[in-house]
Write a structure and sequence with these properties.
Strand content: 5-15%
Strand order of the largest sheet: 10-11-9-8-12
Distance between the termini: 30 Å
Oligomer: single chain
Order of helices and strands: EEEEEEEEHEEEHHHHHHHHE
Largest sheet: 5 strands, mixed
């Protein structure tokens, strides 16, 4: 994620911030410009952008009252929720103990995902291609997963202790809320970018035939464990369970890579490959890693960054920042994801609209597959 600055005083601010500590102005995230905007109140819960005082008044998303959102919507919007919160179909019952804090954490991770999707120029609604819109259910006692465009995340995943317990239970090297959301979003975009975009043959050459019985493949993986040779061709053990999971894991790793590179570059801390070899100093030429950088260049930047950050984590006694090795076949799959995104966005020209779809509170649970 890029570095943000208050549009009034240029003090550094961060993605979830609602007030600038430099000038004291209210802050909100504008999902059109993808910027944090300084605001001045004009009454009745409305604000005007300080740098655009003749523009349309704005207001905060309805979920701001819960401390769960700082995104802005036009004052005359038909929905009282922002582009990201409008994707919620179910949220936990906020009157139950612990649910509000967990949901706020879930929302923050989801907004980081949506931010990346918007940076890529990917649509949040696939209705024009017949697959519907991206939808989220955040519920207790559910199976985290994806089914027909609905991403279900168990609220318990917001509990760091429970998340670590499950990480160890499933022998995973990495587990996070953002990682879950990135992985599950991959299933939605597989239909959009692969199945509906004429790329199935190319996909099958790299990932395998997705027509293999999915439930049987998962049962085999959970019952017998990962393939013994998974490290030779996959980014993770779970990726070896089925081609769809291979795609989703690869998709998530690609989003990890791009966002981490964007963050590192924005904060002036990226050790470029050339810098390691020749001692080249900053500033390096910058690129929009979401839209402009080639895949080869991304990989040349990603490897030295992960090596440096792994070493920094170890120096503090923590686990590796990126505890994975990318074999050549997995690199080819990452390149496929890169190309699939770029070609889709280029062909469509602009991302689709989100549409209006209000969330509701629920005390019951749904299960996803």
């Amino acid at each position: 994620m890029k570095k943000f600055a208050c549009s009034k005083c240029r003090t550094t601010v961060y993605f979830p911030n609602v007030q600038c500590l430099g000038c004291g102005h209210a802050l909100g995230f504008d999902s059109t410009s993808l910027e944090i905007i300084a605001l001045e109140p004009i009454g009745d819960g409305l604000f005007r952008k300080i740098r655009d005082r003749k523009g349309t008044p704005v207001r905060f998303c309805a979920n701001a009252v819960h401390g769960a959102c700082n995104w802005l919507i036009p004052a005359d919007s038909a929905s009282d929720r922002c582009r990201a919160c409008d994707l919620n179909r179910t949220i936990p019952n906020l009157s139950e103990p612990g649910n509000l804090m967990a949901w706020v954490e879930l929302e923050q991770a989801k907004k980081m995902l949506v931010y990346s999707l918007l940076r890529f120029g990917l649509p949040l609604d696939g209705s024009s291609t017949g697959i519907g819109r991206l939808v989220f259910d955040f519920v207790r006692d559910a199976l985290t997963g994806h089914l027909d465009g609905v991403i279900t995340i168990a609220v318990q995943e917001a509990d760091a202790v429970e998340r670590e317990r499950q990480r160890q239970q499933f022998d995973e090297r990495y587990r996070s809320l953002l990682g879950h959301l990135r992985h599950e979003s991959g299933h939605f975009y597989w239909t959009l970018l692969v199945a509906n975009s004429g790329r199935l043959d190319e996909f099958r050459e790299l990932f395998g035939d997705e027509r293999e019985d999915y439930q049987a493949a998962l049962a085999r993986h959970h019952g017998q464990g990962a393939r013994a040779d998974w490290q030779l061709s996959h980014v993770s053990a779970y990726a070896s369970s089925h081609p769809w999971e291979d795609w989703a894991e690869t998709w998530a790793h690609y989003l990890h890579m791009v966002d981490a590179l964007d963050t590192a570059e924005s904060n002036g801390m990226e050790p470029r490959a050339a810098g390691f070899v020749t001692g080249t100093v900053w500033p390096f030429k910058t690129y929009d890693v979401y839209r402009a950088e080639t895949f080869v260049a991304l990989m040349e930047r990603w490897v030295p960054l992960t090596l440096a950050l792994n070493s920094l984590n170890r120096s503090m006694g923590h686990s590796d920042f990126y505890p994975f090795v990318i074999p050549a076949p997995a690199k080819a799959k990452l390149a496929f994801v890169h190309t699939a995104i770029r070609k889709f966005v280029h062909a469509k020209g602009a991302p689709g609209s989100v549409g209006n779809h209000k969330s509701h509170q629920a005390s019951d649970a749904r299960t996803g597959a």
